[in-house]
Amino acid sequence: MAITLNHTIVPCFDKAESAKFYCRVFGFEYVGVFSHFIVVRVNDTLCLDFDNQTQFSTTHYAFKASEPEFDQFFARLLTERIPYGSGPNQSNDGAINRHYGGRGVYFRDPNGHLLEMLTADYVIPPQ
After folding, report:
1. CATH 3.40.1440.60 fits 7-54, yes or no
2. Dmax of the chain from CA atoms?
3. With a threshold of 0.85, does the pTM exceed it?
């Protein structure tokens, strides 16, 4: 069996609103309350567990999608009027990057986490 990431905790100020945001924008499945978390299913193997915290460091979450899924996602991003950009330091320049023959955008969630949607893997040169 291949090892897969099963879940990760997303620290947030309001777990209910954060979970709804990810479901609305990404199209993820709202699972519900588990212990003190609110769980959102990304795919068959990965869930995000949203957890209220008063202080936390923001982080980066990147999601890969097919070209048609990217189109659906991007339409929701525009409908929500969420600022987006072409890179981690240009997360609001209103551009889509075309790295490695794909498309990608960066934007911030309501907690300040930097989110990324991309359609092609990064090519890392051999060392």
Report:
1. no
2. 44
3. yes
